[in-house]
Design goal:
Number of strands: 21
Radius of gyration: 36 Å
CATH architecture of the largest domain: Roll
CATH topology of the largest domain: Dipeptide-binding Protein, domain 3
Strand order of the largest sheet: 15-19-14-18-16-17
Strand content: 15-25%
Number of domains: 3
Helix content: 25-40%
Number of helices: 17
Length: 579
């Protein structure tokens, strides 16, 4: 039986081998005849084919380039709605109300939640905000503002001239205790209709327009609140403004303040949907926060941080001009620094150039006066006391040595800031002439509450923004010497008061210059402070953030001037025709 199977198997095997050989011969013959033979037949025309193929490829490439060129001509990258922008803040924001600019962090948040009649643009000029226009009388004592129609609060209620009048009434009310009250002292107002309000000044006052940048607060929410409770009312944790962003609530014990775009903002809905402020203890934490993608922007005052930030890829640093100065403010009511000769000695002992070079890494300019160069009344002939250690020692030697020996100057300043390093340098400089210093470096909230407001120091190392105009009444007039006034030196001189009063009321430019120049002469002889330097304002943003536009700013919060135009998302869109 097995022999039969082997026979059948061999038979089938020979059959399949025969078929395989037949298929193989057919495949070889077909390949030779139709492929290799066909290519030989095509040899005379294949170069024509290749040329046509090349022409086709070049044509397609040209068409593609032409389409790209057309896209470049008619299409461009445009801002897209959406996304989130997060920025760092130093200090605590406990309430947001434009009547109470408690600190720079609070002022920054206030700037995007509230709108004023006017605002400061990127060239330090006043332009309309809630107002559409204004008229000034010939004697410069009457200002009439016309509001934009159809203005609304974040809660949808109508905003009109009655809200403006209410805001000014609250600022002027002494029970409100607003530090802005001096700006509106003696100003009368009259609501002519829902869209028109008139301000009457007792005298012409050139910086008045800048006062109208103050944020307007809603009458329909705060009218029933006693003025004395304006600062503590729950409105400040759930503010309702008319600015580009809405703040639903300040969450207690949270390090973040989250805002959302206001769809009916009177200029235009902001491109960025969500705006976030992340609160840090100090600038030292900013770079770490940026690297962790917690923030996309932050301001820099510390030169060491600026140097490190400049080395980070994808981070752009904007160097802005800011009318501000850092200074050592003497408490004129303190017996320790009440002697003008002693203050002169300390001024001679202070090496400003060294501070700018070593503590500020040359990110500032040495200055001597509370009115900066380029402002009305600046007078370089006013007395100044350049660094002279020998002169300082000579003056110190003429003062009661027992008193000098027993005196320890209490110098207060802000912890974890550039001021802290400067304070240590000043301590060393003054020690060289025999004056001992105790430094109190504290957090911003403590500095505001327990030192500045109570004037609890011999010397305060801090900064001031002088603002839009040479009018420094709020900083140096005797009426502002007590809290909530900003005369933190408690400087009192009737002659200086007279110059400040007449300077701010001057109609004539030359007269205004002469008044402020005379103030500088008097101030420099009294030396209520050592003005050290004017800093650069460095503002860092990720290159992914587009639309920022600022050059000269009056105060740091002005950097948000056009925040509605910032964007982080893009799209292709037809280009606008410029013809």
């Amino acid at each position: 039986m097995s022999s039969y199977f082997r026979f059948q198997l061999n038979r089938k095997s020979r059959k399949y081998k025969h078929k395989f050989r037949s298929w193989r011969r057919w495949a070889l013959n077909y390949t030779d005849r139709h492929i290799f033979g066909g290519w030989e037949k095509f040899s005379q025309s294949r170069w024509v084919f290749i040329s046509l193929l090349l022409v086709f490829v070049v044509s397609m490439f040209g068409l593609w380039q032409q389409l790209l060129a057309q896209n470049d001509r008619y299409l461009g990258i445009a801002a897209e709605y959406g996304g989130t922008y997060a920025e760092a803040l130093s200090g605590q924001v406990k309430g947001v109300n434009p009547l109470y600019p408690d600190n720079s962090a609070t002022t920054d948040v206030t700037a995007v939640v509230f709108s004023g009649l006017t605002r400061v643009n990127s060239d330090r000029k006043i332009e309309p905000d809630l107002a559409s226009s204004w008229e000034v009388s010939a004697d410069k004592k009457t200002y009439t503002f016309k509001l934009r129609p159809n203005l609304k609060w974040h809660d949808g209620e109508k905003l009109d001239a009655n809200d403006v009048a209410f805001t000014i009434s609250r600022i002027q009310n002494p029970d409100s205790r607003s530090p802005l009250s001096s700006n509106w002292s003696g100003v009368n107002y009259e609501v002519l209709n829902d869209l028109t309000i008139k301000f009457s000044l007792p005298n012409s006052y050139s910086p008045f327009l800048y006062n109208t940048t103050v944020g307007i607060i809603p009458k329909h929410i705060l009218e029933g609140v006693r003025p004395s409770l304006t600062k503590t009312f729950e409105f400040n944790q759930k503010p309702v403004g008319s600015g580009p962003y809405k703040l639903p609530e300040i969450v207690e014990k949270s390090d973040e303040i989250n805002l959302v775009a206001y769809d009916e903002y009177h200029f235009r809905r902001p491109y960025i949907d969500k705006l976030k402020f992340v609160q840090y203890t100090s600038e030292n934490d900013y770079l770490d926060g940026y690297q962790k993608k917690q923030i996309s922007g932050f301001a820099i005052s510390d030169p060491d941080i600026e140097k490190k930030a400049s080395q980070i890829d994808q981070l752009k640093i904007n160097h802005l001009s800011l009318p501000a100065y850092g200074a050592l403010f003497f408490n004129m009511n303190s017996p320790n620094v009440s002697d003008v000769n002693f203050r002169k000695a300390l001024t001679y002992a202070t090496d400003k150039n060294s501070i700018v070079k070593n503590q500020l890494d040359s990110q500032a300019i040495v200055v001597n006066y509370p009115i900066l160069a380029g402002y009305s009344g600046f007078d370089s002939t006013a007395p100044k006391y350049s660094y002279d250690e020998a002169q300082a020692k000579s003056i110190i030697s003429s003062i009661d040595q027992e008193k000098i020996k027993n005196t320890r100057i209490r110098l207060a300043t802000l912890r974890n800031s550039v001021y802290e390093d400067i304070a240590l340098s000043v301590k060393e400089m003054w020690a060289k002439v025999g004056v001992q210093v105790d430094i109190a470096s504290v957090d911003l909230d403590e500095l505001q509450q327990y030192y500045i407001r109570t004037r609890n120091y011999d010397v305060l190392l801090y900064g001031q923004d002088i603002g839009y105009d040479s009018d420094i009444y709020a900083y140096w007039h005797s009426s502002q010497a007590k809290d909530p006034g900003l005369n933190i030196s408690q400087y009192v001189n009737p002659e200086a008061d007279k110059y400040l009063e007449t300077g701010r009321l001057a109609k004539d430019t030359d007269y205004k210059n002469s008044r402020y120049s005379a103030f500088l002469q008097t101030w420099s002889k009294d030396l209520p402070a050592i003005i050290l330097y004017t800093p650069y304002y460095n503002y860092a943003q990720s290159i992914e953030v587009k639309g920022f536009s600022a050059n000269k700013i009056v105060e740091p919060s002005n950097r948000f001037y056009n925040i509605q135009d910032w964007y982080v998302l893009t799209k292709q869109a037809p280009k606008t025709n410029s013809n």
